[in-house]
Design a protein that fits this description.
By secondary structure, the protein is mainly alpha-helical. The chain is rod-shaped. The N and C termini lie far apart (about 75 Å).
Amino acid sequence: MSSVADQLNNVLQKTARLIELCNALQEENDLLKLENQHTKAALEAAKVKHTDLDEKLRVLKLAKSIEGTSEKTLDIKQKINEFVREIDKCVVLLKK
Protein backbone atom coordinates (compact mmCIF):
# COMPACT_ATOMS: atom_id res chain seq x y z
CA MET A 1 0.00 0.00 0.00
CA SER A 2 2.87 2.38 0.60
CA SER A 3 3.54 2.26 -3.11
CA VAL A 4 0.14 3.74 -3.86
CA ALA A 5 0.62 6.34 -1.13
CA ASP A 6 4.03 7.24 -2.56
CA GLN A 7 2.57 7.59 -6.02
CA LEU A 8 -0.23 9.76 -4.67
CA ASN A 9 2.26 11.99 -2.86
CA ASN A 10 4.32 12.21 -6.04
CA VAL A 11 1.25 13.25 -8.04
CA LEU A 12 0.31 15.82 -5.39
CA GLN A 13 3.84 17.27 -5.39
CA LYS A 14 3.90 17.50 -9.18
CA THR A 15 0.45 19.08 -9.18
CA ALA A 16 1.57 21.67 -6.62
CA ARG A 17 4.66 22.40 -8.73
CA LEU A 18 2.50 22.82 -11.85
CA ILE A 19 0.22 25.22 -9.98
CA GLU A 20 3.26 27.26 -8.89
CA LEU A 21 4.57 27.33 -12.46
CA CYS A 22 1.15 28.33 -13.76
CA ASN A 23 0.95 31.21 -11.27
CA ALA A 24 4.46 32.38 -12.16
CA LEU A 25 3.65 32.27 -15.86
CA GLN A 26 0.41 34.17 -15.28
CA GLU A 27 2.31 36.92 -13.43
CA GLU A 28 4.86 37.12 -16.26
CA ASN A 29 2.03 37.25 -18.79
CA ASP A 30 0.39 40.13 -16.89
CA LEU A 31 3.69 42.03 -16.81
CA LEU A 32 4.20 41.49 -20.52
CA LYS A 33 0.68 42.71 -21.27
CA LEU A 34 1.34 45.87 -19.26
CA GLU A 35 4.64 46.43 -21.05
CA ASN A 36 2.87 45.90 -24.37
CA GLN A 37 0.28 48.54 -23.48
CA HIS A 38 3.01 51.02 -22.56
CA THR A 39 4.84 50.30 -25.80
CA LYS A 40 1.67 50.78 -27.83
CA ALA A 41 1.00 54.09 -26.08
CA ALA A 42 4.57 55.25 -26.78
CA LEU A 43 4.22 54.22 -30.42
CA GLU A 44 0.94 56.11 -30.76
CA ALA A 45 2.52 59.21 -29.21
CA ALA A 46 5.44 58.92 -31.63
CA LYS A 47 3.03 58.63 -34.56
CA VAL A 48 1.18 61.76 -33.45
CA LYS A 49 4.44 63.65 -33.06
CA HIS A 50 5.57 62.44 -36.48
CA THR A 51 2.32 63.62 -38.04
CA ASP A 52 2.64 67.01 -36.35
CA LEU A 53 6.21 67.40 -37.56
CA ASP A 54 5.21 66.43 -41.10
CA GLU A 55 2.48 69.07 -41.02
CA LYS A 56 4.91 71.70 -39.74
CA LEU A 57 7.36 70.79 -42.48
CA ARG A 58 4.65 71.08 -45.12
CA VAL A 59 3.63 74.51 -43.79
CA LEU A 60 7.25 75.65 -43.78
CA LYS A 61 7.72 74.49 -47.36
CA LEU A 62 4.56 76.32 -48.36
CA ALA A 63 5.68 79.50 -46.61
CA LYS A 64 9.05 79.37 -48.32
CA SER A 65 7.47 78.73 -51.71
CA ILE A 66 5.18 81.74 -51.33
CA GLU A 67 7.93 83.91 -49.86
CA GLY A 68 10.56 83.14 -52.47
CA THR A 69 8.50 83.82 -55.57
CA SER A 70 6.84 86.81 -57.13
CA GLU A 71 3.59 85.05 -57.99
CA LYS A 72 0.50 87.03 -58.68
CA THR A 73 -1.95 87.45 -55.84
CA LEU A 74 -4.44 85.31 -57.75
CA ASP A 75 -2.09 82.33 -57.71
CA ILE A 76 -1.49 82.81 -54.00
CA LYS A 77 -5.23 82.99 -53.34
CA GLN A 78 -5.73 79.78 -55.29
CA LYS A 79 -3.07 78.04 -53.20
CA ILE A 80 -4.68 79.30 -50.00
CA ASN A 81 -8.10 78.09 -51.18
CA GLU A 82 -6.59 74.71 -51.98
CA PHE A 83 -5.16 74.47 -48.48
CA VAL A 84 -8.46 75.50 -46.94
CA ARG A 85 -10.21 72.72 -48.87
CA GLU A 86 -7.54 70.27 -47.72
CA ILE A 87 -8.02 71.38 -44.10
CA ASP A 88 -11.79 70.99 -44.46
CA LYS A 89 -11.29 67.43 -45.70
CA CYS A 90 -9.09 66.70 -42.69
CA VAL A 91 -11.70 68.10 -40.32
CA VAL A 92 -14.36 65.90 -41.89
CA LEU A 93 -12.09 62.86 -41.48
CA LEU A 94 -11.43 63.74 -37.85
CA LYS A 95 -15.17 63.96 -37.14
CA LYS A 96 -15.69 60.37 -38.38
